[in-house]
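Lab manual, section 2.4: Encoding a predicted structure.

Procedure: take the sequence of the chain (526 residues), apply the prediction step described in section 2.3, and record the output as structure tokens. A sample record is shown.
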Amino acid sequence: MTFVQVAASPEQEAPTPPEGLTPVPWRTVSLTAVAMTACLLALATRHGYHIDELYTRAASRHLAWGYVDQPPLVALVAKAEMAVFGDNLFGFRVVPALLASVAVLFGPLIARELGGSARAQILAGFMAFASGLVMYTGHVMGTNNWDELSWLAASWLLIRMVRTRDTRLWWAIGLVVGLGLTAKYLLVLLLLCLGAGLLVFGQRAVFRTWRFPAAVGLAVVIASPVLIWQITHGMPQLEMSAALSKALETLSRSTFIPMQLLLIGLFLSPVWIAGLVALLRRPEWRPYRFVGWAYLLMVVVLLVIGGQGAYTTSLQFVLLAAGAVAVDRWARTLTRRAVIGGLVTLNAATSAVLLLPTLPVNTYASNPVLSEMAIVQFDQVGWPEMTRQVNAVYQSLPSDERAHTVIYGNHYGQAGAIDKWGPEYGLPQAYSGHNSYADFGVPGEDKTTVITIGADPKRFGELFRSCENRGAYRNDLPVSDDGQKFMVCRGPLKPWPQLWEQLRWIGFQCPYTAEAVTAESTKSCD
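Recorded output:
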């Protein structure tokens, strides 16, 4: 009987909450958002560039309508950032920090749409500030910054449209989706799950308007350059997705449930879970029940296809805002309010330690718990040291040979590091066959010697007249490239354009090993 009531037609569903919602306490929530940006900028230059940021930095010098593993928006923003602030880490992270403040504001806005009081909205803002999602995406420049915002904006607009029945909001949704697809294709997963939730458990009347197909058309038009690029280049994103699923399939399934509890933050997990339960059970929230079912559907889909647990985080943020409303109604006594305050504080502290460079990097390395859980910290260190060690190999070559030498990084982070710090040592240009870095340049015919980082000795031995081992990259910190071998290979057996076709690869290099996993690989990363 319950299922029949939930899936009933819109006309039979429970009425939406009253139109007179509590105004947003803008002063308090705005100060919370500003504090988020201030904290992120204060920590922006600690440790160093993240591996993906080195790739984005290189991509910004080779703007295109698309890349093998991502749409073009992030590279374009990086280009603008460096034009305004210069080629430095602080400037590179200004936009992510500003976007994080916008993400914080979505917590109160979503809570308000669900009928939350001013206190509930303020609580939602505090919880957004304390969430691991906002901290991580606000610190590292990448596709996740824009992906998070597009998910939150689309969810908020859809909830608002269901409440107000104002189908003109389809235009805003179409705009958000179109722009979101220029940053990351994962937005499609949210749309499919929310759409399925609406069709089965929500108010299907929102689809019965000409504005819905018009909004779809608007989104397609905005994203058309990106989509056309993918189509004309053989849909490399599909190959990349298959490779990533293969590389992480064992890890994704074994850590999926723990990730659901850790990504927003362990201490706020009871809150977003309470939001999920309330959305599924409260009669007054029946029109918004589709959000809860969308999350559950997404979990099932990701478990079936071996997707990463991190993909649900932005939708969990929506559940967190709902949970803030539910918790506000529960916290009627001083003791209960103290409990909520303690959970928010503990979540903010643990998320900051794990996801932001709040501690010296040696502290992370020496602590057995932090060294296992704060892996993101080690992806931001070691790159200048790698460049210095590559320079030692380069300087060991005869002076007349250096003019004919290039550097090859097996993955884009290695090549990106040489591109960033190599000029300080006078190093030659770095290349890589990994993903779209392969399109950033091919060595000239006069380049007869190549210094490789982490490359497959067997493959390079088949492509060059000789290859010799020149040691390995060593770092006292537990960085993922520690132990990657250096080689000096001489005498390419074919012209570089022909060699390049054999060196191109789309996929993921397993951390702490030199194994490159592609869509055709038979094993995943351990």
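Check your result against the sample. The radius of gyration is 25 Å.
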